[in-house]
Amino acid sequence: MTVDxxxxxxxxxxxLRTAGKAALLDDLARRAALALGREAAPIRAALAARESxxxxxxxxxxxxxxxxxxxxxxxxxxLARLRDPLDFEAIDGCPVDLVALLLLPADPRDVSVxxxxxxxxxxxxxxxxxxxRTARDVPGLHAALRRNGLGAGx
Length: 154
Description:
With 154 residues, this protein is α/β, with parallel strands linked by helices. The chain has one domain (3-147): Mannitol-specific EII, Chain A (3-Layer(aba) Sandwich). The protein has 6 helices and 6 strands; from the N terminus they run αβααβββββααα. It has helices at residues 3-6, 21-36, 40-52, 112-124, 126-134, 138-147, and strands at 12-16, 57-59, 62-63, 66-69, 76-86, 96-105. Helix 2 (21-36) packs across helix 3 and helix 5 packs antiparallel against helix 6 (138-147). The termini are close together.
């Protein structure tokens, strides 16, 4: 599985407006549920449970909210660039403007950890982050992912 499989253009959001961390997680859970043909409430609950262990704000304006879900057969991702950075209780205390949601199968023997590490490593690359922050629209965001080596395997 490539990062391009996890983050196709139809799962990239540019200029997302949100009222705060809880509203952002609600919105992302709703969007993921719609794409997966599932109910949003269990996704939101799984994300909240993970966040209760500690923020998934990894620093440098990036958050990687993620959770494991029963019945999911492969990782699923969404990428959002927020219109306005928000407090995500990130490890460095800085507001977040790039958010990659990753939903993982409940079975930990699959490629989930690799998928999460790949996305985290690439989004923390300063060149990738700059390209994502300066893209003008969804096609530009998606092109920034591909141009920076994310399309072929992460």
